Amino acid sequence: MTIRSVVIVGAGQAGFQTALSLRQEGFSGKVVLIGDEPSLPYQRPPLSKAYLFGKVGLDALRFRQEKFYGDHRIEVRHDLVAAIDRTNRSVILGSGTSVPYDHLVLAVGAHNRALPVPGAELDGVLGLRTLADADALRARLKEAKNVVVVGAGFIGLEFAAVANTLGANVHVLELADRAMARAVTSEMSNLFADAHRSWGVHLEFRQGLSSIEGSQGKVAAVKTTHGGRLPADLVVFGVGVLPNVQLAAEAGLDVENGIRVDAHLVTSDPAISAIGDCAQFPSLEAGGTVRLESVQNATDQARTVAARLAGKPARPYAAVPWFWTDQGDLKLQMVGLVQGCDETVVLGSAEAWSFSVLCFRHKQLIAVESVNRAADHVAARRLLAARRRSRLKRQPPYDST
Amino acid sequence: MPTVIFVHPNGNRDALEVSEGLSVMQGATGHGIEEVLAECGGNAMCATCHVYVQEDQLNRLPNMTEEEEALLEGTASERLPNSRLSCQITMTAALDGLVVLLPGKQV
């Protein structure tokens, strides 16, 4: 069937890129991009960095200005999607309107895992994911003296570095025994822990939050799992995200830890694809299925789907994952996935903040992490991508289910 | 406001005003210059804002960082001696009239 209309639910990085790529690939049908936030599509990474500092404004966050959408006949709708009517191929908006599709792309993203402790509802306890979250934090950072960050992942540490630079007294509590434990090697965790401490951030590992205390509805202090008490006028949590699967699950699509898709990013309904933070896809790197939260994953998956919908030969999704984080003066660049790493080789010096960690599994390079060694990062990206291409030639589609 | 002249692969020229402090990449995407993608949002991670700076103007620009230098090795269009990442060029009054040539492809 010729596809004449594509509806994209979710106007974040993945949704925006799908619309853009559809037009770049020459798709001439109708494109509707539905997002539940009031602003035009914008990029999230600066929200925990430059935007918090006030270095960049909203204009710089937007992927494109308003005129772009008109020029490219991309219909942007600011609305909630209440349901998917798969029988009639349409999505039902919160307002009750139904929007028909020939193909539906779910780029619905993820939401912050809530803080499961008493006091989490107090004024001054905030997460960081949306522009509205960042605006709220930006205002509070002007006055915050004692900041407690829960979770030493990317978001928590990026925020901690900003709050510290702005003059707050910052404590980071992390249940694991090291920083960014899910995503980086212990060598790199140690470099970043040392760096944060040298900047004056207080980092405590194997330490969680047991409750938040308030005064007149406002946060006043936190109690830690070890019984300590820290004064706080702002508590920011970054304890992971959960994929937004409800809409897909209610429509009867296969859902596990994300919306389940095949190697072409198609869900259990051939008229629906899912991409970005919400999609659980087969991955050579992961040796199974995986769900990744990154700009690279969002844009590369969007391009893969857009090319297929525009009638290009369908190719399985096979991009090599890469990530970055900015904390203080440090930028960490990563390529590949470190899970399963059984041997590391380091280059440069952690003390000098010029450092790469090469990660191997069964004697094969699987990931490289670099600080101030961009040449290592770029070389690793090219190497892993070239190996991927030659493998795909030898053993095409690794998942043909 | 300083002006940047973007030259498309077909030779057409667009002279566009870019506020001081914005990057040439932000100027391009803000004005709808299609050849600049900037997928990573200006973080020197993706090399999809690659441009060629008119050769006689190269000396007007600040030197490249090691990071920009490294990323230019991965551009989709051939890297040339006048290749730069437009996200790493910050507009100043001194750069008024800068001429950048847009590559045929970014991915």
Quick gist of this model?
The complex is a heterodimer of chains A (401) and B (107). Chain A is of the alpha/beta class and 401 residues long.
Q: What are the key terms here?
A:
heterodimer; A: alpha/beta; Enolase-like, domain 1; 3 domains; five-stranded parallel sheet; 27 strands; B: alpha+beta; Ubiquitin-like (UB roll); five-stranded mixed sheet; globular
Characterize the overall form of chain B.
globular
Sheet having the most strands of chain B = 5 strands, mixed
SS content category of chain B: alpha+beta
Could you give the order of strands across the largest sheet of chain B? 2-1-5-3-4
The level 1 CATH classification of chain B is: Alpha Beta
Mean pLDDT of chain A: 95
- Oligomeric state, counting identical vs distinct chains: heterodimer
Overall residue-averaged pLDDT value of chain B: 94
The helicity of chain A comes to 25-40%
End-to-end Cα distance of chain A: 21 Å
Placed side by side, the strands forming the largest sheet of chain A appear as 3-2-1-7-20
Describe the structure.
In chain A, 26% of the residues lie in helices and 32% in strands. Chain A is of the alpha/beta class. Chain A folds into three domains: 175 residues, FAD/NAD(P)-binding domain; 122 residues, FAD/NAD(P)-binding domain (3-Layer(bba) Sandwich); 66 residues, FAD/NAD-linked reductase, C-terminal dimerisation domain (Enolase-like, domain 1, 2-Layer Sandwich), CATH 3.30.390. Chain A has a five-stranded parallel sheet. A five-stranded parallel sheet of chain A has the order 9-16-10-11-12, with helices on one face. Chain A has a five-stranded antiparallel sheet with strand order 23-24-27-26-25, sandwiched between helices. Chain A is globular, with a radius of gyration of 22 Å. With 107 residues, chain B is an alpha+beta fold. Chain B has a five-stranded mixed sheet. In chain B, strand 1 and strand 2 form a beta hairpin. The N and C termini of chain B lie far apart (31 Å).
